[in-house]
């Protein structure tokens, strides 16, 4: 069974990285995959949340920082070295690869390390972090924030298209991010809400006047 899943993973990678290759994706996917493009918009959104939601926005900021750090460290510092799966560009040839800010087609042979040898593939930290943010924000704020899952999926897809991750890498990263976000959200609900500062503000109850002072 494991071999069948592995073969299916390779086949899906070949379809995304080779068969679906096109000029538009060659422009869009590197942008989606570059976190630096999202830093300023993310900081802007978090600033708006803090100004608009006040305490609720501050709590969201705190939870976001803790969740992203957790998902990133678990994926990069724990699971990647533990599992030790090589990136597709480091173990396969004929890869449509984006490296050093340019596209290249790697030769079928000989194989070469285009990413650092210890830069492992499973799980994808991009997928883990983006799905962690999407899950946390939607769980905490509800509303239209479910749309963040489409952005997280697009960023995860870009990692396969760029030739640096297999499909199972981004699926594993997505699951890790979702579970990490849910863990911290329920920790907030079960633990932090016991402290007064973390409790949401409630409107003060107005005294009810006794309108029936006498029976008619």
SSE topology:
Blueprint: H1 2-19, H2 23-33, H3 36-53, H4 55-83, H5 88-91, E1 96-99, E2 102-105, H6 125-141, H7 148-161, H8 167-190
Antiparallel strand pairs: 1-2
Helix pairs in contact: 2-7, 3-4, 4-6, 4-8, 6-7, 6-8, 7-8
Please, how many domains? 1
Share of helix among residues?
A: 55-70%
The proportion of strand residues reads: under 5%
Terminal Cα separation, in Å?
82 Å
SSE order: HHHHHEEHHH
User: Strands across the major sheet, in which order?
Assistant: 1-2
Name the structural class: mainly alpha
* Unreliable runs: none
Biggest sheet architecture: 2 strands, antiparallel
Number of strands: 2
The backbone outline, from C-alpha atoms, is: elongated
Please give the radius of gyration in angstroms: 23 Å
Mean residue pLDDT: 86
Summed up, the helix count is 8
Overview of the structural elements:
The structure is a single chain. The chain has 216 residues and is mainly α. The protein has one domain. It has eight helices and two strands. It has a two-stranded antiparallel ribbon with strand order 1-2. Strand 1 (96-99) and strand 2 form a beta hairpin. Helix 4 (55-83) packs antiparallel against helix 6 (125-141). The radius of gyration is 23 Å and the shape is elongated. 32% of the residues are buried.
Task: Provide a compact summary of the structure.
It contains 8 helices and 2 strands, in the order αααααββααα. The protein has 216 residues and is mainly alpha-helical.
